[in-house]
Design goal:
Length: 374
């Protein structure tokens, strides 16, 4: 019989930072960082979880569900290492601000905690900003830019964001606090990444090490923003949009799980304001535990009571049975499985085409590029 294995904790320096000693390309950097960070998540979850028993024809064995994922992530890390020595670029790192702005995480957390006292929706709103930023030309803070025509056309007014994306004043407050603590150091793109993790944690969800070192873009992409995932997308369309940013069906199901808290306008729901409310009437995305980050959302799907059409299609779509439905059932039955996968998928999403090194800039005002009088 195989005995449960306790995996050793990480070395003091993150594994990917031992590996990335020869300045690999941004693409390889992203692969190494993502695999290493996912391994870190899985190690934590594995060491804190109970093994379960499965039976084969030969014998019954004890096995931790995270070991298979851990092995897969480790293989991905080794594959990335194979090419890492031959290219150039800059790496994101969980320790990026340790010397230049050691209190960055605490500053972001304090501002969010203060904001949620008067606006309990803020955690859900902030994580949504990170999603909508990363899905448009990568995690570069482009969503935060206001109109500055003719050079900058804002992404805030596209259909997916207009009168919907919110929390920008809180981002401004975070930026102001960070500029006071360590001027010109922390990017707006990293603010969104940190705010997303802290928001999930404050709502009762998982924690993960956020990779940092993104720089801010100086352009927007309205055409790409007009193709953000929609609450009315069929499953195949959603899967294609996620594949386009190197996220798979498990990532899709996990990241859609962010709909476990927050609110939505009834015009976007499956009931479509049928009770006669105005289109902007807000409804809880999860009617069971609307302010908690948990796995009740997946139970809603199993009951056929998901609020958004794009959520329910993960069970009802033609391709669901072979792709997303098994993952929905898994997450509905195991909150820790959901938390583990959500954290891993957030790390992957946060590595979509970041600007690093000398690319982009560190904005002084998240709403404007520095060259415009700042």
């Amino acid at each position: 019989m195989l005995r449960p294995t306790t995996i050793p904790s990480h070395p003091s320096l993150p594994l990917h930072e031992h590996i990335l000693q020869r300045a690999p390309s941004p693409e390889l950097v992203s692969r190494v960082q993502t695999a290493s960070s996912i391994i870190s998540v899985l190690i934590t979850q594995h060491n804190n979880s109970e093994p379960y028993t499965y039976t084969t024809m030969a014998a019954a064995s004890s096995f931790s569900p995270s070991l298979g994922l851990l092995a897969a992530a480790h293989c991905a890390l080794l594959l990335a290492m194979a090419g890492a020595a031959s290219a150039g670029g800059s790496a994101l790192s969980s320790t990026f601000y340790d010397a230049s702005c050691p209190g960055a995480h605490d500053v972001v957390r304090r501002v969010i905690q203060d904001a949620r006292v008067s606006d309990p929706r803020i955690p859900a709103s902030l994580i949504r900003l990170h999603f909508h930023d990363c899905f448009v030309q990568g995690c570069d803070g482009s969503l935060l830019l206001d109109d500055d025509l003719p050079a900058i056309q804002t992404e805030k007014t596209v259909l997916a964001n207009n009168n919907s994306a919110r929390g920008f004043p809180v981002v401004d407050d975070i930026k102001a606090a960070l500029e006071h603590a360590c001027p010109g150091i922390v990017s707006c793109a990293d603010i969104l990444a940190l705010a997303a993790e802290i928001s999930v944690e404050l709502a009762g969800g998982p924690r993960w090490s956020v990779l940092l070192g993104r720089r801010d873009g100086t352009t927007t992409n309205v055409q790409s923003a007009n193709n953000l995932p929609s609450p009315f997308d069929e499953l195949e369309v959603l899967q294609e949009k996620f594949r386009n940013v190197n996220l798979d069906s498990t990532d899709l199901v996990a990241l859609q799980g962010a709909h476990t808290f927050g609110k939505v306008q009834c015009q976007f729901t499956r009931e479509n304001c049928t009770a006669g409310q105005p289109e902007g009437t807000l409804e809880d995305l999860d009617r069971v535990t609307p302010n908690l980050f948990d796995n009740k959302y997946y139970g809603n799907l199993l009951e056929g009571s998901a609020q958004l059409p794009s959520d329910q299609v993960m069970l009802s779509g033609p391709a669901a049975a072979a792709t997303t439905a098994p993952v929905v059932h898994r997450f509905a039955g195991d909150q820790q499985d959901f938390f583990r996968n959500f954290a891993a998928s957030m790390i992957k999403m946060g590595n979509i085409s970041p600007l690093t090194g000398s690319d982009g800039e560190i904005r002084k005002n998240c709403r404007r590029v520095n060259s415009k009088g700042h």
